[in-house]
Amino acid sequence: MSRSLAAVAGGRSVARVAVVGNPNAGKSTLFNSLTGLSQRVGNYPGVTVERKVGAMAAGSDRVELIDLPGTYSLAAHSPDEMVAVDVLLGLLEGERPPDAVLAVVDASNLERNLYLLSQMIELGLPVVVALNMVDVAEKRGVHVDAAALGARLGLAVVATRAHKGAGLDELRARLCEALATRRLPRPVVDFALPDGLRSGVDHLQQGAGAAAERAIGRPLHSFEILRGLVDEGGHAERRLRAAGGDVESSLREARRKVGSSIPLSALEAQSRYRWIRQIVAGCVRRDAHPPASWTDRLDSLLTHKILGTAIFAAAMLLLFQSIFSWATPARDAIDAGFNAIGHALERLLPAGALRSLLVDGVVAGVGGVVSFLPQILLLFLFLGILEDCGYMARAAFLMDKVMSRVGLSGKSFIPMLSGFACAVPAVMATRVIENRRDRLATMLVTPLMTCSARLPVYAVLIAAFVPRRSLAGGLIGLPALTLLSLYLLGIATAIAMAFLFKRTLLRGPPPPFVLELPSYKWPAPRVLVLRLWERTVAFIARAATVILAMSVVVWALAYFPRSAAGGSAAPPAAPAAVASSAGGARDADAAREAAQLEGSALGRVGRALEPVFEPLGWDWRITVAALASFPAREVVVATLATIFSLGDRDDDPQGLQRALTQARRADGAPLFTLPVALSVMVFFALCCQCGATVATIRRESNSWGWAAFTFGYMTLLAYAGGIAVFQVGRLLGAA
Amino acid sequence: MRTLDQLPPGASARVVRLCATGAIGQRLCEMGLVEGTDVRLIRFAPLGDPLEIEVQDYLLSLRRSEARLVEISDSAAP
Predict the structure, then answer these.
(1) Cβ–Cβ contacts within 10 Å for residue A586, how many?
(2) Average pLDDT of the segment spanning A235-261
(3) Which of the two residues, A703 and B78, has the higher pLDDT score?
(4) How many CB pairs under 8 A join A and B?
(5) Is A193 in contact with A271 (CB distance < 8 Å)?
(6) Per the domain annotation, does B16 fall within a domain?
């Protein structure tokens, strides 16, 4: 076997297999099981499609698996969808065509899954089918005979249960066999396009083939021609035109020749489904009285008018309550750990710039952010479970009517919901939306959803300034209610902005909503854990790079320039600011540090901008923290920790919260009142202080303009929102 | 001609013709709403739209406005 495989590779590198399948067919689980942790994720050039490649060990050989995005058909409506076709036909620059295709087919949903397979078979590549979810099909009283299906399709069909790891060894063996023999599928019934379509393709080939070949330097694949013929007014047609030659008149003539009374796409689909019925005849046995499936029973509950809506709301409430309370012990433990490191360093190192850098810059900064990892993981876990068990699609079903009022579809709801975890993957998740305008509108408002990076800001300020009162008989606390309100603020603003965008910049009719509601299933722990692990690594990497760098920069700006003789050289403005703490006879050290901070580079910038942020109730220190958090919101916590641990030394484990409540204004009044804390939180709810999000929007929209626009409009909203909440809060407080 | 959106919840019918063109027409027929296919309307969403149907052994959600493009015969064949 290994010799023949080496022959396939032909001295090139390793053999390549493209993994193709419908969404929800278990493709990701199968890909993960086959490749394990040896995955590389990148992007195809020029488009926004993720390129995921993994190595699979097959005997003594290694095979490279390419995971293509899940799709129902190879009819491409957008450049992104075209990538799958281009990869399979080997038309992508710098990419060898795959040597074989691994088609993942959901046995519980055989006919529709075979639609994509019928297109695969036309590509002229060896195909191996993983007949997945046979157990789910059995439970529904549908018995698929894998061997018989394989015989009728003229290719290897292996029954698999990807989530249990069953059938994988045989699948690997069949793949190696296909790579070695290079045998093409030979179905017992050849798929034939209707005569009209066939002659249309031929006509187009004759009319435009030669000219197109001259223009693009290769012959057109007949599948490309078919797509261009059928896709009236769509992307595949435009691409065919772009190839040059006399496509226009050939296309018109070819379509006239087909002479169909129904749309060409319907003609193609009909003939494919007819072929599918012929193929599956005799391979599928159905129980006369199939048991009512769990999906039916669950759906009648979860999409029920009253109960379904209540369950949806309860699930969201549970999520917020859990991330606020359940993660606390782990968070406290991490806090304590970083504090211990800080104290150890203080004992080990002599006082001076280095000790200050490590303790006040690095440990306080990074520790302040890493301690929110438990909450972030809990959130990702929760959203991951909702996604994998199939509930996300029901959420889209429940919410579509609301979203269509705004001018979007329920499909936009899923990216927006993912935005609760992190705007970066959420912006990427807008890829499920076909229409560019709707996709852009969703992309522009998704960063308004309360992502996990806002949690550190909320958590610190809520814990410090919102009274711990419980409401509704202890069911929910005031802190959790405040958190929920901030989430609702994000949602409401996002909806309002989407409404606005769809009526102005991105005007267009509401997009269609054709969405599969997949069967409910238990999420595979392995896949969930793998994804959580990826998130953890990504978050820690971010803490170790962006956040560490910012912490150090902010520390340096706050530490330098050093005044020569400490307190005596403090700038003239300083004494007033520290008068209160001096009056309390805290100690000269703290006064000197505060004066030093105010005279530092950071203090000067903050002072200069103080008037701009005064209507929000902020002083120069809050202004500095907000400015420093441009690369990532959570940095504001690190900056506050740096500023206040520098200005007010305190060895309390609850350091930051304590420091914030004790911070004073120049006149001795507390710096943070409830309206100020709320204005900071509202600012961070609405602003776009996240370099990664801005970069992702640039990449996904292929334009710096949209990225800059998102940052700009959100910053304006945040500023206005901060002013509104502070001024209203102050009036209410005074009344 | 009756269309899919007029079907009461729980009722079945057979697709006679699909009147949609363009991307939406293509998507609907790829998803299995082709001539001769049996469909069952399961329910409408709590807010009255979209609706959930069973077609080709799976559950599909689409809007009333899209279901209106699918012409159906009065009842499914036995």
Answers:
(1) 16
(2) 76
(3) A703
(4) 137
(5) yes
(6) yes
Bigger pLDDT: A572 vs A541: A541
Record: contact A112-B58, CB cut-off 8 A: yes
pLDDT above 60: residue A618: yes
Residue B60 and residue A402: Cβ atoms within 8 Å?
Answer: no
Query: How far lies A408's CA from each of A383, A445, A450, B50, in Å?
Result: 22, 12, 20, 13
| Total domains, chain B | 1
Rounded Cα distance, A229 and A120, in Å:
18
Looking at residue B18, which CATH number applies to its domain? 2.30.30.90
Residue A535 has pLDDT above 90, yes or no: no
Report which of A649, A646, A598 is spatially closest to residue A365, judged by C-alpha positions. Answer: A646
Q: Which ipTM score applies to this complex?
A: 0.93
**CA–CA dist A394, A412 (Å, integer):** 13
| Neighboring chain B residues of A115 at a CB cutoff of 8 Å | 30, 32
Q: Is residue B24 part of a domain?
A: yes
Mean pLDDT within A388-409: 86
pLDDT digits (tens, 9 = 90+) for A471-489: 767 677 788 888 889 989 9
Cross-chain CB nearest to B31 (options A112, A306, A410): A112
Residue A350 main-chain phi, psi, to 5 deg = -70, 150
Mean pLDDT in residue range A89-100: 85
Q: Do residue B50 and residue A400 have CB atoms under 8 angstroms apart?
A: yes
> Would you say residue B77 lies in a domain?
no
Distance from CA of A276 to the nearest CA of B (A): 11
Q: Is the pLDDT of residue A76 over 80?
A: no
Q: With 80 as the cut, is the pLDDT of residue B61 above it?
A: yes
For A582-586, the CB contacts below 8 A with 24+ separation are A583/A668
Give the pLDDT of residue A203. Answer: 83
CB contact under 8 A, A305 and B50: no
Q: Which domain holds residue B10?
A: 2-72
DSSP string, A59-116: TTEEEEEEEPPP-S-S--SSHHHHHHHHHHHT-STT-PPPSEEEEEEEGGGHHHHHHH
* Whether residue A574 has pLDDT greater than 90: no
Per-residue pLDDT at A613 exceeds 50: yes
Q: Is A516 close to B66, i.e. CB distance below 8 A?
A: no
Over residues A274-302, mean pLDDT: 86
Annotate A649-718 with DSSP letters as a single string.
----TTHHHHHHHH-B-TTSSBS--HHHHHHHHHHHHH---BHHHHHHHHHHHT-HHHHHHHHHHHHHHH
Chain A residues with beta carbon closer than 8 angstroms to that of B40: none
Cβ atoms < 10 Å from Cβ of B76 = 15
- Contact predicate A128/A101, CB 8 Å: yes
The per-residue pLDDT for A155 is: 93
Range scoring the smallest mean pLDDT among A35-49, A537-551, A644-658: A644-658
Cα(A252)–Cα(A254) distance, integer angstroms: 5
Strand partners, B61: A515, B52
Question: Is B54 contained in some domain?
Answer: yes
Burial degree of A140 (CB within 10 A; 0-12, 13-18, 19+): buried
Tokens of B31: 């998803």
Bridge-partner residues for A106, per DSSP?
A132
Q: Reduce the DSSP state of residue A617 to 3 states and report it.
A: coil
d(CA A338, CA A334): 6
Q: Please give the Cα distance from A445 to A16 (Å, whole number).
A: 39
Question: Is A364 within 8 Å of A645 (Cβ atoms)?
Answer: yes
List the one residue out of A348, A372, A392 whose CA is nearest residue A459.
Answer: A372
In this complex, the residue of A72, A109, A300 whose CB is nearest that of residue B30 is A72
CB contact set of A648 (below 8 Å; sequence gap of 6+): A581, A590, A593, A594, A659, A662, A663
Dihedral sign for Cα A689, A692, A695, A699, please. Answer: negative
State the average pLDDT over residues A621-631.
Answer: 82
Task: Tell me if A638 sits within 8 A of A625, measured CB to CB.
Answer: no
